[in-house]
Amino acid sequence: MKRSVKAISLMLVVMFLAVMVAACGNSSSSKVSVGIVLPTKDEPRWVQDEQRFKDALKGSKYTTEILFSQGSSAKEKENVDALIAKGIKVLIICPQDGDAAAAAVESAKKAGIQVISYDRLITKTDAVNYYVTFDSIAVGKAQAQYLVDKAKPGQPLYLYAGAASDNNAFLFFEGAWQVLQPKIANGTFKIANSSEAAALKGTAKLTREQMSKIIGQVTTNWDANEAKNKAQTHLTAAAADMKGDVAILAPNDGTARSIADVFASDKAVTKFLVTGQDAEKASIQYVIDGKQSMTVFKDVRTLVKDAMGMAVAILDGKTPETTGSYNNGKIDVKAKQTNVIVVDKANVKSALVDSAYYQASDFKGL
Ligand code: BGC
């Protein structure tokens, strides 16, 4: 009799401990509800997103953690696994490489986590639930329209693109090509640095393969150094009739500044127009100083608000609002899209300072 009482109390103690352990497990696993993974700290664009997330999350009841992948898909997978282990319910992720990120989000899906692709689409997987993005086709169109509006007949045109591992690079180029192609076909522009683009000048709508060929020749890989080296190589190879007053399609601000510096240092280039995007502070200064012609302002505050809005809807058991969808090569991903604003010297103050995105004191000579 005594023995069985002992056994029962021992069992109770074991059961109590088991419950305690489970409870502790639970409380530690609910530590972080939303995990955020961004591609790299090496580009101001993503450091800006981190800051905008932090601003938006001040005083929020939801716990979040932001990790950076530093340009590595392996690090990105580690980050996602670490967040899964912390019990996140929603993952907001901007992939370093759209295809390679599939493995990371598939692990998240297996753990019952809802995935929001942020700014860049994760491709060739069904493990993406939502996509928040800017209108990337419109970004490319706006860059090209800027060049077209100021074009001189027979003007040399230099093309540059983003990284082929980023689906956005294709969307930007697709948008730009829609606007540039008729002007290339009618001789307004002559392409200076891509034989593939020149060979396709009669083709209004490019296939992904055709775009890949052009991007393969003129990619910057989103790297300012690579952009600089390519621009130098192109100018060294360019004949005299490909210099003078030129137009340059640069895909974003980081690459635009280094391409602009190279073109500015070539004496045979008398004048140039160069595009950009992101409204990075350094590029806004370039625009004010007349060193970069324009940028496309993508208000990251809106993107962050939309991404967090979706995450909170999911946490509250509601269905997030979407405005359309994007095919990622496997499924149609429901998406919420935000418009972009063209900024040049004429509206830099009203678009960026009056909207409280930046402060006037961030710039000289505004
Ligand atoms: C983003 C751009 C950014 C680029 C390089 C793109 O996916 O949309 O804003 O400049 O990546 O990081």
UniProtKB/TrEMBL annotation:
InterPro entries: Bact_Solute-Bind_Prot2, Peripla_BP_I, SBP_2_dom. Pfam families: Peripla_BP_4 (PF13407). It comes from the Bacteria. Its main location: other. Residues 1-22 form the signal peptide. SUPFAM superfamilies: Periplasmic binding protein-like I (SSF53822). It is found in: Cell envelope. PROSITE patterns: PROKAR_LIPOPROTEIN (PS51257). The keyword Signal applies. Keywords: Signal. Residues 34-318 form the Periplasmic binding protein domain. This is Multiple sugar-binding periplasmic protein SbpA. It comes from Paenibacillus allorhizoplanae.
